[in-house]
Design brief:
Number of strands: 18
Radius of gyration: 17 Å
Number of helices: 1
Structural class: mainly beta
CATH architecture: Sandwich
CATH class: Mainly Beta
Strand content: over 45%
Largest sheet: 8 strands, antiparallel
Oligomer: single chain
CATH topology: Jelly Rolls
Order of helices and strands: EEEEEEEEEEEEEEEEEEH
Distance between the termini: 23 Å
Shape: globular
């Protein structure tokens, strides 16, 4: 798999995302919000009112997904700096930063909630039919309370791996520690999302930065489970 966003900052140039040094980063598309280049250390900012005006975005919604849809057993990692949440209404418990795995379309995907307003980490499956932009979110495991470390860089990784029995194992690691895992065995919302799909990043009402977004093949289910 490709290494997407390395140590280099991204800039919006002529409608395309490019890395300094000449490499074209055309693997992602923005459907909401903006990506802005920020001074060294290279980071990306979105919906970030805490930055100087030339780097800030007025958007409270950020959506970025890969153009490619061939991500099957994959681990997505990034460094995340959460600066806080906007205080203006409406405020939702799920405001914050989330990763997408096995994204088939906007109403059919796995969502991994990393930082939320209610200080919960969550692994969810979104299935077609419902009032959330055409879908319904289903929690695949018990949520866990994990206070958001605002103002500190976090190393985040999320993975989806197919198991021999047809189920899908999903994991969330923060700073190298396994903080949440779920097994989609088809008992909620129909069959597991076993097909490859897109990966992506979502944020709502969050002031945040990220860097070094990587996608790599996930290890075998048995290896990653230890």
């Amino acid at each position: 798999m490709k290494r997407f966003l390395g140590a280099l900052a991204l800039a919006v140039l002529a409608g395309a995302l490019r890395a300094e040094g000449g490499s074209t980063i055309d693997d992602f598309e923005l459907t909401s919000g903006e990506v802005r280049r920020v001074p060294v250390p290279p980071v990306i900012a979105a919906a970030d009112s805490g930055l100087p005006p030339e780097y800030a975005s007025d958007s409270s919604v950020f959506r970025m997904r890969s153009r490619g849809s061939d991500y099957g057993d994959v681990e997505v990692s990034l460094e995340l700096l959460d600066l806080g949440l906007r205080a203006e209404p409406p405020q939702n418990a799920w405001d914050g930063v989330h990763l997408w795995l096995r994204y088939q379309h906007p109403a059919y995907l796995y969502a991994i909630s990393v930082n939320r307003r209610d200080d919960r980490v969550v692994i969810k499956k979104k299935v077609p039919g419902g009032d959330s932009y055409g879908g319904t979110y289903l929690d695949l495991c018990e949520t866990r309370r994990l206070p958001v470390p605002y103002g500190r860089w976090q190393q985040v990784s999320a993975a989806a791996v197919n198991r021999p029995d047809g189920s899908v194992r999903l994991t969330l690691r923060i700073d190298g520690k396994l903080v949440l895992e779920a097994l989609d065995d088809g008992s909620l919302g129909g069959p597991p999302i076993a097909r490859p799909g897109r990966i992506g990043l979502r944020a709502d009402n969050a002031d945040f930065r990220f860097r070094r977004l990587l996608a790599r093949p996930a290890g075998s289910e048995s290896a990653r489970g230890r």
